[in-house]
Amino acid sequence: MDVFYVSVDVGTGSVRAGLFTSDGCMVCTATCSLEMNQSEPHFYEQSSRNVWESTCSVVKEVVSGVKNREQIRGIGFDATCSLVALDGALSPVTVSLSGEDNWNIVVWMDHRAEVQAARINALSHPVLRNVGGKMSLEMQPPKLMWLKEHVYESCWKKARHFMDLPDFLTFKATGSLSRSMCSLVCKWGYQASEENGCYWDDSFWQSIGLQELVSDAYAAIGTDVKTPGQPCGQGLTVTAAEQLGLVAETAVACSMIDAHAGGLGSIGCNVDGDPFLNSLPLRCRLPVICGTSTCHMAISERSLFVPGVWGPYLSAMVPGFYTSEGGQSAAGKLLDHVIETHPAYGEVRDALQSTEYLQNVLNSNLEKLSNKKCIRLAALTSNLHVWPDFYGNRSPLADASLQGMMCGLTLDRSAANLAVSYLATVQALAYSTRFIVEALTAGGHNIKLMVLSGGLSKNSLYCQTHADVTGKYTRI
Q1: What is the arithmetic mean of pLDDT over 198-217?
Q2: Among 10, 218, 291, 292, which residue's Cβ finds the most Cβ atoms within 10 Å?
Q3: Strand, coil or helix: what is 345?
Q4: What is the 3-state secondary structure (H, E, C) of 81-135?
Q5: Strands (DSSP E) along 291-404, which ranges?
Q6: In the chain, what percentage of residues exceed pLDDT 70?
Q7: Contact, 146 vs 97, CB < 8 A?
C-alpha cells in the first residue's frame, strides 16, 4: 500500500499544502490566499480563524485523490513567525487598535514595537547575546510589551495564551499547547545550549516589565517544549481530522518557522552532476530562503556569535547544530514596491499576456536593452544605485530605523527606466546578501555554496546576480 504525507506551509500572503510520497516525491499542491489587515502604517494583522480555515481548505484539496485516508500517515506544519493571541477558552483575542477579535495575529513583518525593542536593547541583557547583540522589533518580546502598553484592556487582560503561528497550527490539529524549540529559541528569547540546557530567563522578562509571565510559570508562552519533527499530542483530534479531511490520530509533527523548514530542505539537497558541491559539509552550505523577506540560514557545530546576525540557536533547524540567521526584512516585497510605484507600471502590467509573469518580462526587456546599447546587462545601472533598506536593516546592521534610497533618478518615466530601476534593486539585494555572507565569514562560518529557494528563486536574474555579486557557488 502506498504511503503519503501532507506538508503545510503558511506564508505571509497564502497557505500552501503538498501531498508527498514516502520517498519525498510531490504528488500535488494547493494554494489559498490569506486576509491581511493594515490598520496603521507598519501594522500588519491577520486572523487565526482565516489561517486555519484556509489550511483546512488546501489540505482537503490535496488529499481528495487519496480514497483510503489511512494511507496518509502524517502531517507537518511550518508558518511565519507571527504572534497569535488567544483567551482562556482558546478563542481569538484582538491585537488590533480596532478592538476586533478577528484580528488576533501580529504578523512577523509588523513594526509597531520599535520603541519597545529599543528599550530592550538599552538593557544589554545577556539574553541579547543570542540574537546578534540586538533584539529585533520583529521578535515577540517587544510585541508583547506593546500589547501590554497599548491594548491592555482589550488584549492583555483577556489573553491567556501567546504563541507563534507554527505552534498555533499544531495546537489546532492536536489540542496540545506544546511549543516548538524552533520558534522559542529564535523569536522568544528562550535559552538553549549544550552547556546550560534549556530554560526561560526570569531576569529578562522581569527587566522588560512582563513579570506576569514569570509569576505564571510561563504557562502563557510555553512550558512543554519539543524539537521539530517530534510527535505532537496524540495526533489529529476528531474535530481537526474532520476539518482537514483526514483520519483521527494521524501523526502530527512538531512545527517549524517557514524559513527554517525551507533551510532544512535546502541544506541537504543533492546537487546533480557535481561531486565537489555534493561533498561539501552542511556547515559550508548557506540556504537563502527568498520570498517576501529573505533569510540566510548558516549552521555550525559550535556556537558562533556574529554581531547583527540572529543566533546561534541550538537545534532550531538541523538537530544538534547551531543556526545563525541573517536576513532582509523586505526582498520580494521591495521589488514589488519599486515596480508598482513606478509611473510605467500600469503600461507594462496591461501589456502582459495571461501566462506571463511581470518580473520575467522585465528580465527579457533588460536583455533587449543590453543588446541595443551593446553593454553588459549589469552595466545598465551604472548611473542608478539603490540602498535596499526600505524597511530597515535586519542584518548585519540590525537597525530597523534605516531607510532606503535611490541615487541617480531622472525624469524618465519609460518602461525601460522601470526595468533598469528593477535591476538596480535586484543588484542592491544581492550586495546586501554579500554583506551578510561577509559578516558570517568574519564570525567563523565558511560558506562555499548558496542554495536558493522560495518565490524569488524562480527569478533567473535574481539568482544569477546573487552568484555574480557574492562569488559563491549558487544553486536553486
Answers
A1: 96
A2: 10
A3: helix
A4: CCEEEEECCCCECCCCCCCCCCCCEECCCCCCCHHHHHHHHHHCCHHHHHECCCC
A5: 294-300, 310-314, 322-328, 385-387
A6: 100
A7: no
3-state secondary structure of 5: strand
Grid coordinates of 392 = 530597515
Q: In the prediction, which pLDDT does 175 show?
A: 98
Cell numbers that stand for 22 in this block: 514516502
Backbone phi, then psi, for 419, in 5-degree steps? -60, -40
pLDDT one-digit tens code per residue, 152-190: 999 999 999 999 999 999 999 999 999 999 999 999 999
Q: How many CA atoms lie within 13 A of 50 on its CB side?
A: 17
For helices 332-340 and 358-373, the axis angle rounded to 10 degrees is 70
Say if residues 282 and 445 touch (Cβ distance below 8 Å).
Answer: no
Q: Residue 398 region, left (φ>0) first, then alpha (ψ -120 to 50), else beta?
A: left
Contact 127, 191 (CB under 8 A): yes
Q: How far apart are CA 178 and CA 242, in angstroms?
A: 22
The number of beta carbons lying within 10 Å of the beta carbon of residue 179 is 25
Q: Which residues pair with 37 in a beta bridge?
A: 45
Q: How far is CA 177 from CA 48, 163, 168, in A?
A: 15, 9, 8
Model pTM? 0.92
Residue 78 CB coordination number (10 Å): 26
Amino acid identity of 435? Answer: F
Residue 65 C-alpha cell reads as: 485523490
Pairing of strands 473-475, 449-453: parallel
**DSSP three-state, residue 253:** strand
Closest listed residue to residue 463, CA positions, set 449, 447, 475, 448: 475
Nearest-CA neighbor of 419 among 353, 346, 356, 338?
338
Query: Do the Cβ atoms of 14 and 34 come closer than 8 Å?
Result: yes
pLDDT digits (tens, 9 = 90+) for 306-345: 999 999 999 999 999 999 999 999 999 999 999 999 999 9
Cell digits for 465? 546576480
